[in-house]
Amino acid sequence: MSKMVRIEIEAHGGTDMxxxxxxxxxxxQAGQILVRxxxxxxxxxxxxxxxxxxxxxxxxxxxxxxxxxxxxAVAEDVTxxxxxxxxxxxxxxxxxxxxxxxxxxxxxxxxxxxxxxxQGAASLLKxxxxxxxxRQIYAVKEGDCVLFHAAAGGVGTLAVQWLKHLGATxxxxxxxxxxAELVRALGCDHVVNYRKETVSERVAEITNxxxxxxxxxxxxxxxxxxxxxCLQRRGLMVSFGNASGPVDGVNLGILASHGSLFVTRPTLYxxxxxxxxxxxxxxxxxxxxxxxxxxxxxxxxxxxEDAAKAHEDLQARMTTGSLILVP
Length: 327
Ligand code: NDP
Hints:
Elements lengths: L2 E7 L9 E6 L7 E11 L1 H8 L9 E2 L4 E8 L11 E4 L10 E5 L3 E3 L6 H21 L7 E4 L5 H12 L3 E6 L2 H9 L4 E4 L5 H8 L5 E6 L6 H6 L1 E9 L13 H5 L4 E3 L10 H16 L9 E4 L3 H9 L7 E4 L1
Parallel strand pairs: 9-10, 9-12, 10-11, 12-13, 13-14, 15-16
Antiparallel strand pairs: 1-2, 1-4, 3-5, 3-7, 3-16, 5-6, 6-8
Helix pairs in contact: 2-3, 2-8
The chain binds NADPH dihydro-nicotinamide-adenine-dinucleotide phosphate.
């Protein structure tokens, strides 16, 4: 039986739990394909699976949900993908921090020839996230002024570019001057360093008191309350992540006192539940790239065995753009 290497955790905890182990490659079941990874996407959610903020289904467990590479084998009943195809995926079961993975053919997306495996692994999950945030939850249109938190991050750098492509005015938050320069270069109209400035005060200045119709907030705990203050009456708060910790204990009355606000706490998988939805979102993302709306920057690469270091850097706010692991 062929072997693979992968990162596993025996229990939830710190990065010291992440161990590189050798395992048999499982036999293909109906509807499955075997992918040899060339690059593996690192996403903030992987840290939640490691710590147990989002518990994994069972332990020991692999980590990671995104990768790109070449199909090595397909089950007999798979017709839409063949050995040799270049694919990326981001909705398989947890376990992509590995040299190989067996996934459902229905979760694989064929990579356009213009997109490398590194770019695919760096951008599919984050790009589909931006797609549902700014095209499905709130269909951003020309002239909208929107606030996007953590604009220099993996999701943020794609969001800023796509929002500009749609003709929006973008207010982005960042945690350092170096990150501010990066997002300005991507076209962000107004950059706020939220370690130094109160975002709602800056949004009031920038919009002459009009505030914004929508806030996209993946930072969570630290920014939630001030984000509500950035919104117009009946505005929409999209709280989509927990980089600083989860938002909890919210008194719903706070939505009334800030102007009859709406709040949603979405996850990507509810916006791509079917193969058709996945293809539609991926085509929308790849079309925006092809139209010149976004460039996928070369991601910061770590060796697979250094996955713990990638988690440490991500959680220490030391990174910009996307991170990948290379087996
Ligand atoms: P990022 O590359 O954006 O990294 C997180 C960034 O958050 C950091 O670089 C940092 O930027 C900022 N941040 C602010 N406060 C903290 C803190 N206390 N600790 C750590 N980071 C902090 O990660 P991703 O692009 O992978 O993900 C961004 C967010 O989007 C995450 O919250 C993730 O969970 C969420 N997400 C949600 C999805 C969904 O469907 N709901 C899907 C995909 C991602 P700075 O230094 O500039 O503040």
